[in-house]
Amino acid sequence: MKLFFISDIHGSLSALNAALDCFRQEQADRIIILGDALYHGPRNPLPDGYNPAETARLLNLYKDRIIAVRGNCDSEVDQMLIEYPMMETYAIVQLEDRKFFLTHGHIYHPDEHPPLCAGDILAFGHIHLPMAEKRGDLFVFNPGSISLPKENNPPSYGLFDGGKLQVKTFAGEVLREVAGVG
Predict the structure, then answer these.
(1) Run of H or E residues at 108
(2) Structural domain range at position 90
(3) Tens digit of each residue's pLDDT (9 = 90 or more) over 139-161
């Protein structure tokens, strides 16, 4: 199964459209949203193409293929617009003998997380920085942000396919990669 990861959309319709173009090109099976879907948050600037209502409408077209967790900028009001569950602080996806622990990162993050088994993947957003690495027995993965990337990184998304975790730009350039996953 091919998983497509996005995080920190922050209501940017233009960034979401670009990411969904990549999702279709990658021919992934599921979209994993690691929080902060609609609201930009008080510490962030307004992202380009800020349109939370249209962002929700577009995401709802993919509701049967989305697994989502709540970010620190997501609220119960957002859930009123979104037609798939998005209010849990974490989710667990089991693929064969690998477990993906999905979270936004404001509660669980690489240094503070529930017990995970060797080879499991901790996938999170929140920091807006791409990451794909092995830390001890765990794989740590962050797709970056599609709308408000930090530290001069380009907008990016993540992909799990063929035992690899990759962070890629919208142009398809691999920014980070770790193999040997699953």
Answers:
(1) none
(2) 3-179
(3) 999 999 999 999 999 999 999 99
